Structures are given as structure tokens and as C-alpha cells.
Amino acid sequence: MYYLGLDIGSSSIKVALVGIANGRLVGVVQEPASEMEMIALKNGWAEQDPRDWWRYVCKGIKNIKEKYKVSQNQIKGIGIAYQMHGLVLLDKEGNPVRNAIIWCDSRAVEIGRNAYASIGEEKCKKHLLNSPANFTASKLKWVKENEAETYQKAHKLMLPGDYIAYCFSSVMNTTISGLSEGILWDFKEDSVAHLVLDHYGISNSLIPDIVDTFGLQSKVDAQGAKESGLAQGTPILYRAGDQPNNALSLNVFKPGEVAATGGTSGVVYAVTDTLSGKESTRVNNFAHVNYTKKNPHIGKLLNINGAGIQYRWLLKNLEVDSYDEMNALAKEIPVGSDGVCLIPFGNGAERMLNNRDIGARLLNVNLNNHHKGHLCRAALEGIAFSFAYGMEILKQDGIDIESMRAGNDNLFRSEIFSNTLACLVNQEIEIYDTTGAIGAARAAGIYEGGFEKFSTYITHNDHLHTFKPCEDNGKYLKAYEAWKKELELIMNSNK
Q: Which residues contact 75 (CB under 8 A, 6 or more apart)?
């Protein structure tokens, strides 16, 4: 018997199967093979058709069943992870009234900034642990202001994972963790954030029913079964945004534990039990998957929009064939890239830089001496430096790091990137062979098996190796300080 996990990303949909008895991975498939389309009608905008997500979910389920000879009756539960901060609006019939406004869309930055000032900084910190910023609630306010007819058609707002659960079941619901990522949860009142809704003039009726993160959220209905190929009655047992889910996938539940990811964007996600919004304009504070009012586990999320997307840009624009070739070129260059400096923030507004969009910068290139190897090394170092910069902000917000874990994908496969970060933050980085889809599949069993059984799945199956901090990190610190000076010059010039 198996659990099925979904990871609804902006680039692709991943579908995983794990065995219920031991949590071992059966297999993962991805749809589509190439990246999904992202619609950018204006600079700073990013939309997707949510119906495409469902279409690829159904195709992925069909493929994984056929590939591993699994019947629909052998799949006993579904876990869903999804790209955070998106806005899906459904009418009363359950149809999307417009494209989804996804996580990297920055059109609502000014709306959120004004709300933070109007509601009041201290009130936002105390109740929301965040600024409204460029999150789901602010995106909904943008629709209300700019697309009045569309807004009037909306019956419920949903996050991307809520929408996929609806497609399976025809039931509209959400979670506390999900609402918190949209800045729609009031931690002080332990309720929907009426102060945000009232400020934006948004009706509480748009909020779906709330269900637990772990438990019977809904069941696949006849239409969902017909389209997905799963058995009618299959329960949806877990749902969470991608970063809380990635932390779960890495067995990060307790204060002091940190999860990191280095994909298109980079994330450092630290768990704490302190309801602090000190750095609320730069750090996101969300209800972690194991949040309760009695045990308020909060995930402090530090996001770097310009991370893997910058390395991918180099791959496309240098005369190289693969990331392996780029990493080999970078290894020929010493720490510090001979002074070449790359600022990676070229993927929209950066929250940790107070929602400023400073762009990507390549600095200190000597046209006689430097070549693409220097660019590759400077890129990996620049992204690692941005992670270290973000972790300094987390420490200012009261986070003491006791352990740090990352998945064996994207940037953390690079020894240069991982060693640079380990040396700068003086912390071991444990690498695990897992993904969000695998974590979501395993999490479907937490409702019945508990967290202890879930943890054994990871420790027994997934650990690969550990990057250790270097004994002498002087060269790394020197290069990092030079990078920070360049960043400060750019930020000061943009004031």
C-alpha cells in the first residue's frame, strides 16, 4: 500500500509514491518535462493558469501508476505541497475567475507597504508577525482595486494547494498554516486576520473553511476520481506550503532546527517557539506545520529570489553544456574569484532587502585576466553570500541555529556553494536525499502514525553526507566582506 505526494511548483508538478509500511520511496515523476509557462504581462508580474497545475497533476498520477504498476486502490492517502503566496480566486461553481497570481509576482508591493504603515508597525508585528507586504492578501486587494468585475465574481480565495485539493474533492477549504502565509492569520487572536480584511475592505466570506494540517481534509469525489485516476473516497490527509513542507521533509520541527533550499529562489527556514516579528519587513513568520496555540511553532522564512535562477541564466548565456561543466570551471578558480563579484538579486523585489529590486550586478571584471570560470565561481559564491547575509538577519531576529539540513538538489549539489556557506556560518550542513513531493507523501501518514514514525523514515532512508565548516575560514570571510561592501554601495546609491 502507498501514500501519494504532490509538489505543486511554478516550474513543474512532482508526484511521489512511498510505501506505507516503511516510508521508502517507490518513485517520483515530473510533469511537464520542460518548465511550465509563466505569464508576465508586465515587468514584475507573474501568473499561471491554475487549470494547468491540475492537468499536470492528473498526467503525473497516470504516469506514476503505469511506471510502477500501482493500481488506484493501492493508494491510501494524498499529501499536497504547493508554491506559497499564490492567489487563486474561484467562483461559486469552482471555476477560476482569472489566472493565479503566483509567489514571485511583485505588483502588490506598494499596497502591502502602505497597509503596514496604516495598520501600524507594532500592531502588525504583534498580530500578524509580518508586514502584509506582497503576499496573498495584498494581491487580492490589487484585484479588488484594478479588476472590479473579476473581484465581484470571486466566491472563495484559495492558495495553490487548496485549489488542487478542491479539484480532487469539490470541497473548498484551507489551513491555518496556509492562511498565515497569505498574512490572513492573527496569531494574537488565534483567528482569521480581520484587521487585514477590514483594512482592505475584503469580506470574510471569501475565506474557505479551515481544516487541520494533518487529518481528513476531504476525499476524492466522483469527478476527481474520473479526472485524476485515483479511487473515489481516497482521503486527502495533509497540505502545506512548499517551504514548511520542505522543512517537514528534512525532519525540521523543533526550535533551533533550520531547513535550507537552493532552487530557483533560495530559502532559509528556521523553526522557533517565539512569537516575534522584530524583522517583520525582511523575514516572514508563518505557522509551521505543527503549530498550535499551545505549542506555537513558527517558521521564520528568509527568502532570496535571486538564487538558482541566476546560475541558470549563466548556463543559458555562457558557452557551456551543463551545470557540471560550470562547477568544474569554478573549481579551477580560488576562493574570492580573484575579486570578481556577482550580486544575484535579479528576480524581482527582495524582501530581505526591504522589498527593493536592485537587480543582478557583475562587478570587478578584468577583461584581460578573467574568463567564464571566474563568472561561475563568483555566481556560486554570490548566492552563498546572499544566504549568509540572510542568516545574519535571522540571528538578529533571535534565531540560534543548532542544526541545518538541506535536500540533495540544485545548489546544494555544488561543493563550492555548500562549503562556502558552511564555512561562513560555521555550521554543519546535513544533506538528505529527499524532496517536497516525498515529504508530502510521507506526511499523509502522520495523522495515523505520528511524528516519531515519520522521523524514522527520514533518518533510516535519506541521509547522504554532511558538509563541515572549515578550520580556517579567513579567505571566505574576506571575500564575503568585499561582497557586502559592493552590496551596500549599490543599496546606498538606490536610496
A: 1, 2, 3, 4, 17, 230, 231, 234
- Cell 541564466 found at: 313
Q: What type of residue sits at position 429?
A: I
Q: How far apart are the first and last CA of the chain?
A: 58
pLDDT reported for residue 392 = 94
AA letter at 322: S
**From the CA atom positions of the chain, what is the Rg in Å?**
22
CA angle centred on 142, ends 149 and 119, rounded to 5°: 130
Nearest to 163 by CA among 224, 226, 106, 108: 224
Residue 25, number of CB atoms within 10 A of its CB: 20
Q: Give SS3 for 72.
A: helix
| 61: Cβ contacts below 8 Å, ≥ 6 apart | 4, 15, 228, 229, 230
Model pLDDT for residues 66-122, shown as the tens digit of each residue: 999 999 999 999 999 999 999 999 999 999 999 999 998 989 999 999 999 999 999
Q: Which residue has 584581460 as its cell numbers?
A: 368
Q: d(Cα 123, Cα 356) in Å, to the nearest integer?
A: 23
CB 101 within 8 A of CB 40: no
Write the pLDDT tens digit of every residue in 29-39.
999 988 898 99
Which grid coordinates belong to 314? 549563466
Distance CA 143, CA 163 (A): 18
Structural domains of the chain in order of their starting residue, each with its CATH number: 2-250 (3.30.420.40), 304-431+464-493 (3.30.420.40)
Task: Single out the residue of 379, 199, 252 nearest to residue 306, CA to CA.
Answer: 379
CA dist., res. 275 & res. 126, Å (int):
8
Q: Which of 433, 337, 348, 347 is nearest to 384 (CA)?
A: 337
Closest Cα partner for 102 from 149, 184, 163, 156?
163
Contact 421, 387 (CB under 8 A): yes
* Rounded-to-integer distance, Cα 466 and Cα 463, Å: 9
CA distance 31 to 54: 11
Rounded to an integer, what distance in angstroms lies between the CA atom of residue 206 and that of residue 204? Answer: 5
Beta strands 266-272 and 2-8 are unpaired
Mean pLDDT computed over 476-492:
95
Cell match 546544494: residue?
A: 412
